[in-house]
Amino acid sequence: MDYKLDVLQPALEAALGPRIRSLVRDRGEITITVKAADYLEACTQLRDHPALSFEQLMDVCGLDYSAYRDGGASIYAEGPRYCVALHLLSVSKNWRLRVKVFCPDDDLPIVASVNGVWAAANWFEREAFDLFGIVFEGHDDLRRILTDYGFIGHPFRKDFPVSGHVEMRYDPEQKRVIYQPVTIEPREITPRIIREDHYGGLH
Known about the structure:
The strands form 3 sheets. A 5-stranded mixed beta sheet has the order 1-2-5-4-3. A two-stranded parallel sheet has the order 6-7. The protein has a single domain (2-160), classed as Beta Polymerase, domain 2 (2-Layer Sandwich), CATH 3.30.460. The longest helix is centred in the N-terminal third of the chain and has 15 residues, at 2-16. The model has no long low-confidence stretch (mean pLDDT 88). 20% of the residues lie in helices and 28% in strands. It is an alpha/beta fold and 203 residues long. The chain has helices at 2-16, 39-48, 68-71, 121-132; strands at residues 20-26, 29-34, 56-64, 82-90, 95-102, 110-112, 135-137, 166-171, 176-181.
């Protein structure tokens, strides 16, 4: 595996050059980070450059690094809050790559859509938009995919309450689904432990 990385790393550095902000080799994988301004161009190079040939997009996911700020020691403690991570596969060269890009604005996280580079990004980007609120500029049909269209908030953000903001139920009088503020009161449940005298053959 290290031999592949020894070939892949210089190929990445030659093809992308200064567009690579960081390159990390860890646990038999390479992760590169690029700026949001270079993201779309870098992805196109990753797909089209003959030395790289990442023809297949395996996954797109959002990340919320806000909790890292509480620890203080992390490299993410002072950086942007939202990140998008891609997992790429080159079938022809039999190697993989992780690409990360941070959204410059925490209040309105935006990065370019790579749906035009890999068609498989379509639903993945919609999922990251739905769950994290990350906007993919240039996406043809960016709308919620897992939550309801009237859903409020983005449930994978670290500050989203565990019980949510609203709940929906069927109202038999109105004969339709309605939304209302959450009525669940938070409570802590401590499990009751029962120990039998001879449990497990112990005396």
